[in-house]
Amino acid sequence: MSEPEAPQRAEGLLEQIADTALDDDYYVVRAGDYAQSREFNTPLTGLVLAAFAVLVMMAAVQTRNDRPATERERSTLISDVAARKKLQANREATADRLRKQVADLSASVDRFDPAYQDVRVETGDLAVSGPGITIVASPSTQDNLDGSITDHDLQILVNGLWYAGAEAVAINGQRIGNLTGIHFANDAINVNYTDIAPPYRVVAIGPSDTLMQRFEDNPAGHYWAALQKDAAVQFGMTPSSELSVPAVPKKRMTIRHATAIKGEE
Amino acid sequence: MIPVIGLAIGIAAGLIFEPTVPTDLQPYLPIAIVAALDAVIGALRALGERRFNDRVFVVSFISNVVIAAFMVYLGDQLGVGSQLSTGVVVVLGIRIFANAAAIRRRIFHA
Fold first, then answer.
1. Is residue B100 less than 8 Å (CB to CB) from chain A?
2. Which residue from A minimizes the CA distance to B27?
3. What are the residues whose beta carbons fall under 8 Å from the beta carbon of A261, sequence distance 6 or more?
């Protein structure tokens, strides 16, 4: 037999692997018991090939058996995702519906709750209209010192109107609200921090038939009658079936410090 | 004839008994099969070159399978199981292709 070919040494690792792909042992001729066993057709070879076949089949069978489980898991996940998407859509629809409901309800509360509406009217948050009286007062045209109208006179007038049964009062278009003050500043009378000038046109919403009478009969009426008589202040009252007063300006409706006591609502 | 019979018996046994791999050994089965395939292709090449030796075949088969499985096991223990598997597959793949190319050259002279 010729000398066995020695595998050549290659430079690179991968080249070396490729060049020595066949195990070196195949090139070595051994003496002894196994020297002649160059026969392929031996039981040992058969046994090894049988083991190889079993290995391959084992892996193949296992992979094939595992596939349905994997498929099942996948389809379960897919249906899970679909179900959750549906659930999410449902919940979004529910949220939309509820949001709409909330908007509707709050709108209807604003519009239709009579108690809330009354409170807003009382506090001057809403412009109101109705029957009432209009009072026009202006200072005396004669040259007398006491013929002017002071903030105090107007306070007495408004108090008298409340006392007479007025439900909403405005002076020269300035609604008298909870926080409204009538006072003298900057050479003018100031209502809701807005200067007003004579003639003072006071609009009071209330029972127009009794309002005038009750005002004239109460101390404020007497006070103004005296002013009219003694200081020649011009004063006129006219009942009307349809009057309107504006709302209090928003900046005079802002509550910054007061909070409702729990249990008092 | 005997090797062909052995192969047939192995396939039949695998199909009939459907032996399951123990869960602990499952990660090593694919790499062991690649190693075994390398030994078988090498044997086919040796057969073509008239160098076949059944003893070398048996030893290379068993050692290939055991070493490949052991390397994957070691890699798993060291936390580099997938990298080491890739390395083993690359080396064995190169050997398989080189041997297959040698067989092809011998049969087709191309």
1. no
2. A59
3. none
Assess A25–B contact: CB distance below 8 Å, yes or no: yes
Across the interface, whether the CB atoms of B53 and A26 are under 8 A apart is answered yes
Chain A residue numbers with beta carbons less than 8 Å from the beta carbon of B56 are 23, 25-26
How does residue A59 score in pLDDT terms, banded at 50, 70 and 90?
confident
Does any domain span residue A231? yes
Q: Residue A159 is part of which domain span?
A: 128-252
* Closest-approach residue (CA) in chain B for A27: B51
Closest chain B C-alpha to A16 CA, distance in angstroms: 10
**Total number of domains constituting chain A:** 2
> Does residue B50 contact residue A38 with C-beta atoms inside 8 Å?
yes
Q: In this predicted complex, what is the ipTM?
A: 0.86
Asked if the structure places residue B81 within a domain, the reply is: yes
Measure CA A175 to chain center: 31
Q: Do B20 and A25 touch (CB under 8 A)?
A: no
What sign does the dihedral A165-A233-A226-A182 (CA atoms) show?
Answer: positive
Q: Would the CB atoms of B51 and A27 count as touching at under 8 Å?
A: yes
Specify if B99 maps to a domain: yes
Is cis: bond before A68, omega within 30 of 0?
no
Question: Is the per-residue pLDDT at A3 higher than 70?
Answer: no
The ranges of chain B with pLDDT < 70 are 110
- Domain total for chain B? 1
Residue at B73 is within a domain: yes
User: How far apart are the C-alpha atoms of B108 and B60, rounded to whole Å?
Assistant: 27
pLDDT at B20: 82
Considering the domain boundaries, does residue B42 fall inside one?
A: yes
- Interface check for A64 against chain B (CB to CB < 8 A): the answer is no
Q: Does A82 touch chain B (CB under 8 A)?
A: no
In a domain, A7, yes or no: no
* pLDDT value, residue A86: 96
Do the chains contact at B99 and A22, CB–CB below 8 Å? yes
Q: Which residues fall within 8 angstroms of residue B67, CB to CB, at 6 or more apart?
A: B35
pLDDT band at A120 (very low <50, low <70, confident <90, very high): confident
pLDDT on residue A106? 81
Residue range of the domain that includes B35: 23-108
